[in-house]
Amino acid sequence: QVTLKESGGGLVQSGGSLRLSCVVSGDGQYAMGWFRQAPGKEREFVASLNWSGTSSYYGDSVKGRFTITVNNALNTAYLQMNQLKPEDTAVYYCAADPNDDDDYDYWGQGTQVTVSS
Fold first, then answer.
1. Running along the chain, 117 residues long, what does each successive block of 10 average in pLDDT?
2. Rounded to an integer, what distance in angstroms lies between the CA atom of residue 103 and that of residue 80?
Protein backbone atom coordinates (compact mmCIF):
# COMPACT_ATOMS: atom_id res chain seq x y z
CA GLN A 1 0.00 0.00 0.00
CA VAL A 2 1.27 3.46 -0.91
CA THR A 3 0.61 6.44 1.33
CA LEU A 4 1.60 10.07 0.93
CA LYS A 5 1.88 12.59 3.72
CA GLU A 6 2.36 16.30 3.13
CA SER A 7 3.76 18.81 5.59
CA GLY A 8 5.15 22.31 5.63
CA GLY A 9 2.05 24.37 5.02
CA GLY A 10 1.20 27.41 7.07
CA LEU A 11 0.57 31.13 7.07
CA VAL A 12 3.05 33.41 5.31
CA GLN A 13 3.06 37.02 4.17
CA SER A 14 2.95 37.99 0.54
CA GLY A 15 6.44 37.76 -0.94
CA GLY A 16 7.51 35.09 1.49
CA SER A 17 8.55 31.47 0.99
CA LEU A 18 7.51 28.02 2.12
CA ARG A 19 8.76 24.54 1.40
CA LEU A 20 6.28 21.70 1.29
CA SER A 21 7.36 18.11 1.83
CA CYS A 22 5.68 14.87 0.80
CA VAL A 23 6.86 11.58 2.23
CA VAL A 24 5.98 8.54 0.15
CA SER A 25 5.59 5.26 2.02
CA GLY A 26 5.60 2.10 -0.07
CA ASP A 27 7.69 0.32 -2.64
CA GLY A 28 8.13 1.48 -6.17
CA GLN A 29 9.31 4.38 -8.23
CA TYR A 30 6.98 7.23 -9.03
CA ALA A 31 6.68 10.39 -10.96
CA MET A 32 5.52 13.05 -8.51
CA GLY A 33 3.13 15.91 -8.80
CA TRP A 34 1.79 18.79 -6.76
CA PHE A 35 -1.72 20.15 -7.14
CA ARG A 36 -3.74 22.73 -5.26
CA GLN A 37 -7.35 23.60 -4.68
CA ALA A 38 -8.65 26.92 -3.45
CA PRO A 39 -12.14 27.32 -1.95
CA GLY A 40 -14.79 27.31 -4.64
CA LYS A 41 -12.30 26.49 -7.39
CA GLU A 42 -11.32 23.37 -9.29
CA ARG A 43 -8.14 21.50 -8.52
CA GLU A 44 -5.19 23.04 -10.32
CA PHE A 45 -1.96 21.47 -11.52
CA VAL A 46 1.07 23.07 -9.92
CA ALA A 47 4.17 21.04 -10.79
CA SER A 48 5.41 17.58 -11.71
CA LEU A 49 8.69 15.71 -12.00
CA ASN A 50 9.23 12.53 -14.00
CA TRP A 51 10.68 9.25 -12.71
CA SER A 52 14.24 10.04 -13.52
CA GLY A 53 14.05 13.59 -12.24
CA THR A 54 15.14 14.94 -15.59
CA SER A 55 11.94 16.69 -16.67
CA SER A 56 9.83 19.07 -14.64
CA TYR A 57 6.67 20.90 -15.57
CA TYR A 58 4.90 23.83 -13.97
CA GLY A 59 1.55 25.52 -14.14
CA ASP A 60 1.67 28.93 -15.77
CA SER A 61 0.73 30.71 -12.56
CA VAL A 62 3.75 29.38 -10.65
CA LYS A 63 6.48 29.26 -13.28
CA GLY A 64 9.63 30.95 -12.12
CA ARG A 65 8.48 30.99 -8.49
CA PHE A 66 8.01 27.32 -7.52
CA THR A 67 10.44 24.41 -7.83
CA ILE A 68 9.71 20.69 -7.50
CA THR A 69 12.45 18.30 -6.41
CA VAL A 70 12.68 14.73 -5.15
CA ASN A 71 15.11 13.09 -2.77
CA ASN A 72 14.88 9.40 -3.65
CA ALA A 73 16.98 8.34 -0.69
CA LEU A 74 14.40 9.86 1.64
CA ASN A 75 11.36 8.98 -0.52
CA THR A 76 10.38 12.62 -0.26
CA ALA A 77 9.18 15.17 -2.78
CA TYR A 78 9.44 18.88 -2.15
CA LEU A 79 7.80 21.99 -3.46
CA GLN A 80 9.82 25.14 -2.85
CA MET A 81 7.52 28.13 -3.13
CA ASN A 82 9.02 31.60 -3.41
CA GLN A 83 7.52 35.03 -4.01
CA LEU A 84 4.20 33.82 -2.67
CA LYS A 85 1.06 35.74 -3.53
CA PRO A 86 -2.38 35.79 -1.88
CA GLU A 87 -3.74 33.93 -4.90
CA ASP A 88 -1.47 31.01 -4.02
CA THR A 89 -3.67 30.36 -0.99
CA ALA A 90 -5.04 26.82 -1.27
CA VAL A 91 -4.82 23.29 0.03
CA TYR A 92 -1.80 21.70 -1.61
CA TYR A 93 -1.76 18.00 -2.45
CA CYS A 94 1.06 15.76 -3.55
CA ALA A 95 0.40 12.81 -5.82
CA ALA A 96 2.32 9.79 -7.11
CA ASP A 97 2.18 8.42 -10.64
CA PRO A 98 3.48 4.82 -10.81
CA ASN A 99 3.56 4.66 -14.62
CA ASP A 100 4.89 8.15 -15.37
CA ASP A 101 1.88 8.79 -17.62
CA ASP A 102 0.25 11.73 -15.85
CA ASP A 103 -2.25 9.40 -14.19
CA TYR A 104 -1.85 9.92 -10.47
CA ASP A 105 -3.01 6.89 -8.53
CA TYR A 106 -2.03 7.98 -5.04
CA TRP A 107 -2.81 11.20 -3.22
CA GLY A 108 -1.99 12.79 0.09
CA GLN A 109 -4.51 14.44 2.35
CA GLY A 110 -3.26 17.94 1.70
CA THR A 111 -1.66 20.79 3.59
CA GLN A 112 -3.06 24.31 3.89
CA VAL A 113 -1.08 27.25 2.57
CA THR A 114 -2.36 30.73 3.36
CA VAL A 115 -0.70 33.85 2.01
CA SER A 116 -1.70 37.13 3.60
CA SER A 117 -1.54 40.43 1.74
1. 96 98 91 97 97 94 98 94 98 96 95 97
2. 23
